[in-house]
Amino acid sequence: MHDSVYEMAGDDPRLAKLLRASLTKLAAGPDGRLKELADGVLGGHVDLRQAAMSDAYSDELGAAFGRFWSHYEQLDQRERDELVGQTEQQLDNLLDEPRPS
């Protein structure tokens, strides 16, 4: 994995593990450009920060964020709170440990 992932995670092993899991999921997915980005970062050939800011991937990243934001905006506050709680639980499960207090 490219060193930029660890730098972006601030040397926090939990965040680095989450970024690796996210990149692995993207690498296994159907989206050609995001798959290419993830494969490059996981293979140590692509700097994650530079790739995320690059025009080469901006359309795909923007579209993915747009889909998320459209969904999020339709949620009421209770649903947003539930989503946050579910996400925190999934993160704890993924990382095999609760977040630090």
UniProtKB/TrEMBL annotation:
Record-given protein name: Uncharacterized protein
Superkingdom, natural source: Bacteria
